[in-house]
Amino acid sequence: MTDIQIQPATEDDVPLILQLIQALADYERLGHEVVATESTVRESFFGPTPHAKALIARIGGNPVGFAIWFSTYSTFLSKPGIYLEDLFVLPDWRGKGIGRALLRHLARIAVERGCGRIEWSVLDWNETAIRFYRSISARAMDEWTVYRLTGDAITRLANP
């Protein structure tokens, strides 16, 4: 589709970002885990120390998807990188090139910043996404296992 507009999110997009986060979580069967609010989204994306950025995809002015990303660093490459936290296209708009357009936009940002890589995770059951990622020459990092600390585990580690 040639009429896809990709733009960085603005503070006016906070309610939309939250709606898309909830839609993504529902799709991933994780809606019960969303605790984000407009206030926390505003602080995370547009506060004094922004932690993430968002790209909004629109067709005819209507939002149809988004990408949330943040900067990383590769020690071995000695270059910055981008971590794609979320890529989501509303179900009615899938298969129209919107996900590819969002990734292409993110790749342009990576090139402009001199990044050495773009990385992301995908749920094992999401075969549609896996096929799409393979179609753009992305490769699975099968030798790596993601570990995570959350909530009380972080607090216990920080305060022995």
How does this structure look, described?
The chain is of the alpha+beta class. It has one domain: Gcn5-related N-acetyltransferase (GNAT) (Aminopeptidase, 3-Layer(aba) Sandwich), CATH 3.40.630. 35% of the residues lie in helices and 25% in strands. It has a five-stranded mixed sheet with strand order 1-2-3-4-5, sandwiched between helices. Strand 4, helix 3 and strand 5 form a beta-alpha-beta unit. The chain is globular and about 55 Å long.
Structure keywords:
160 residues; alpha+beta; Aminopeptidase; five-stranded mixed sheet; 35% helix
Secondary-structure map:
Elements: E1 4-8, H1 14-27, H2 38-46, E2 53-59, E3 62-74, E4 79-89, H3 98-113, E5 117-120, H4 127-135, H5 151-158
Parallel strand pairs: 4-5
Antiparallel strand pairs: 1-2, 2-3, 3-4
Distance between the termini: 54 Å
User: Can you tell me the residue ranges where pLDDT is under 50 for at least 5 consecutive residues?
Assistant: none
- CATH architecture annotation name: 3-Layer(aba) Sandwich
CATH topology name, in short, is: Aminopeptidase
SSE order, one letter for each helix or strand: EHHEEEHEHH
What structural class do you assign from the helix and strand content?
Answer: alpha+beta
Strand order of the largest sheet: 1-2-3-4-5
| The CATH fourth-level homologous superfamily | Gcn5-related N-acetyltransferase (GNAT)
The count of helical stretches stands at: 5
Radius of gyration: 16 Å
Shape assignment: globular
Number of folding domains?
1
